[in-house]
Amino acid sequence: MKTRDILVAAAVFSALEAVALNAFAPHLRPTGGVGRMLERFFIANIILYFLYAILIRPYFVSPLRHIPGPKGGNLVFGHSLDVRRSKPPGDVLRKWMEEVPNDGLIRFRDAFGKDGIMPTNQAMLKAVVTDNNYDYEKQPKVRDILRTILGDGLILVEGHEHKFQRKHLLPSFQVSVIRDLYPTFWTKACEMTQMMKEDAAKSEVEFGIWCTRVTLDIIGIAGFGRDFDSLKNPDDKFVQDYQQVLEPHPQKAAFFLISLLTSPTLALRIPFWEIPKELKRISKGLYDFAYNLSKERRAELNDSKKSSDEKEKRKDILSLLVKSNDFSDNDLAHQVLTMMAAGHETTSNTLGWCAYLLALNPEIQSQLRDEIRNELPSPDNIATETISAATVDSMPLLNAVCNETLRLYPVVPITTRDVVKETMLGPYKLPVGTGIFISPWAVNRSTEIWGKDAMDFVPHRWIDPDGRVNNSGGVTSNYSIMTFLHGPRSCIGQGFARSELKCLVAALVGRYDIKLTRQEDTYFPAGLITTKAANGMWLKFDEVTGW
Ligand code: HEM
């Protein structure tokens, strides 16, 4: 039940109880008038509701109480603290998947007695994310918090608005559009490897910074036709603000938690705290930037002085959206914000994990380097030679390494939904308000699905015995890998991200030998919505000449 509904119900019951008391037992009326009486009933009703929600409903009333789940849990917060404090995020859910015998669903107690359901097999995952997708929505509070940075674009809208936006955005992500972007991905990847040469002399480098810069530049060009040039201008205010807002920090986690427990509007008004102030400032700056960019692009594409050839050349996502005439400048600004946030930090962190996994597996790294050097031109020849999608997509080990990284390190380790319309999931009727936890981290690492080596880096599972690329990883169902989800709310940028990642890994590994510089257990993911290396991605890069 929503907080507002609880308060309204408690108020209505208080009024009815007051009327009943007045009518049937006036001698029991407390002194202090009607106000005092209502106040007492109201507090008593709230307490009774919480006692019911925490002590009775989950154990004796919930229609989902027979679904197997983990033992223990806090009386008030249920298992929610375990889930939210899990290190790495999603790992507690993975352990439950391994340890709790189940038929495709696991139930646990979320905070204040709310049911939390985790689908664990392909049929249940498919039912949630594909078949009955619109019976589930992201929690309004989570959406409100994210809206500050992501805008009101595709990720956060629901229902009809989502269907409309998705339909009109899809053409910008079709295969032919992505294929044309490979040279852009490659150019920026080569620029990064060139710029890193100075760093290669250092004993270790925080590679995450390079990943963020290169992916920000790529989404700038491919997404909006604007080169942020953050590889060359890392001190740019816009670039710095963006990096700052996405950087995990305990105070930001606290802000997120307070927003969830109260409301984001309230949390943003907390006085004497820098975090809400900074968030508001950055969010306004980002919106202004996105709005002006959208307006300028529309003006440019409507400018009769510009030749149709010039307009035709503009193939970035924003220009395609302007040309479609389906969005106002304000709508476009929200889509720009969404694409910018969803479209760079995710790929950036995946690139970091790929470098880490290759550093851990030097033999595979060296085989991959051979494949890259055999198939692709050196980044030093960028002025004269580029690459093609056909070549990159047919390189077995490159594709396998990227697929295996995406399996082991899904940068969205958990995503949650609430049931908004009573719906069937397997044999169970889920009441409105039931929480759903989909965990790409848990599914992608499940030994039941992936076998005994589920937790190991085994790129060869993505290569067929005849040496060709396969995109199944040797398992039978799409729902065995949930990195980009599936269905109507799957990642629209999946093709973009995969292609970008391959180009970046190719240029990087072709040019550098990558080594770990710290204890293996210091590298682990952390973060609230998307994850990145908790202590930074510290690596050593040695230039490998002769390419
Ligand atoms: C490795 C990189 C990426 C990963 C792992 C990833 C993962 C995901 C996941 C799991 C979702 C679903 C989130 C949810 O519903 O809770 C999602 C949605 C989305 N992603 Fe990605 N993403 C990546 C890259 C990108 C890129 C490059 C773009 C854009 C250029 C993008 C744009 C979006 C958008 C717009 C949505 C919302 C789709 C919808 O709700 O219809 N993502 N992504």
The biggest beta sheet reads: 5 strands, mixed
* Count of beta strands: 12
- Principal-axes geometry comes out as globular
What is the mean predicted local confidence, pLDDT? 92
For the biggest β-sheet, the strand order reads 1-2-8-5-3
Q: Please mark out the parts with pLDDT under 50 across 5 or more consecutive residues, or reply none.
A: none
Query: Would you identify the CATH architecture of the largest domain?
Result: Orthogonal Bundle
Query: What is the CATH superfamily of the largest domain?
Result: Cytochrome P450
Beta-strand percentage range: 5-15%
Q: Which CATH class of the largest domain?
A: Mainly Alpha
Ligands: protoporphyrin IX containing FE
Oligomeric description of these chains: single chain
Radius of gyration, Cα only, in angstroms?
Answer: 26 Å
Indicate the structural class. alpha+beta
Number of helices: 24
Helix content: 40-55%
